[in-house]
Amino acid sequence: MMKYVFLRYVQNGLVVIALATILLSVHTNIAHATAPTPSWWVNPVCDAGHFSGLNSYKLGGSLNGVDACGPTNNYYGVNFFPGAVEEGEWQCTELSTRYMYLVYGINPYVANGKDVVNNYPGPSSVLVKTTNDGQHGLPTPGDILSMGAVGDNIWGHTSIVTTVNTVGGITTVATIEQNGPNANGIGNPITVTNNALGSNVSGWLHNPNNDSLQMIKDNIGQVWAHTGISSSWNLETPSGETAISAGGSGLQMIKDSIGQVWAHNDMSTAWTQETPSGETAISAGGNGLQMVMDGAGQVWAHSSISNSWTQETPPGITAISAGGDGLQMIKDSIGQVWAHNSISNSWTLETPPGITAISAGGNGLQMIMDSVGQVWAHNSISNSWTLETPPWEAAISAGGNGLQMIMDGAGQVWAHNTISSSWTLETPSGETAISAGGNGLQMIM
Fold it and tell me: How far apart are CA 139 and CA 300, in angstroms?
């Protein structure tokens, strides 16, 4: 499973125009439209009236049309279909199980909150068991969490991830839940430390399809998207868009003909206007990170749709690239590359002048191309750069799990997964654009 999902919108000024036709990328949201109303409910509002004495209602938390319901501290058994394992309205497990059934097609199975991940019967092609050990990246919207037993609560807890946000260097995971401490069905923010979740989270069920978001823009400026190779494309916009960028958590960014930026986290849902007119470049990364560059070359960033933007640089920047874990790369007017890992943090000078292209990927991966077409890479800010290629490369793109793609002057595409390893020839000559995403995903045009 990929560790992070990111857009690899190749790079401003170099391949952006070409990529504007086939732009790809990844890490994460759940790529599902609104889930159907449960067929076993007698009332579309939280099954109200099904049981005498249970005045059911929406708590407030919701994801992809699946609502958290109450009141809490109740157990009224229901079967999602004849013969299904019984679930209790409105226990924490009922919400997670209902979500998995309606969105992923997973039948209910026996589990307390702490066991929802460990007892998952499969298939792994739909959801992947992920241990909370700091080695497997972060969950994405639609992933199912398990929390261990604490004190008198021997059953543990379960909830559903809605967003992952990084602000001021602090990453938190937001969730919806039932039978939890808050009356609104929204869990307390879960703080991330060294890539591991707090709040006694033991692990989560991850949707690997979140890691394969692809976006394309056609010749009249319509944007299309899908998750999963060979699946049908969804028309996302009318004509007239000029730039696209796909990031983690299903994040899509688009720029229209007057430079307004719009975003959403789920295919086929309404777009949110993020900026006024006049933006010139966009880049989406992991954990909701968005970067924009205005007409003066100022860079702005935020980590959640509709949040306030933070000015990251003075004027004069010429290229931007957003990666995983809050990684941002910028290129200034003399070709110096700067990077940092958190909005509002100080920038670190990464290179001398003369760089022509930049690309940020997962796990801290940075790729640069110099004025003679040599490609260099490293995995951590301030680390030494490794020379990856001889001169005359034409385009670069960094993805998740160390994936690097390059396109040479003849239009041949090469790839490898580890700095300093041998390159593999992926295509014959004649390609015009490349984009690397999560989970090994590569796109070429």
Answer: 25
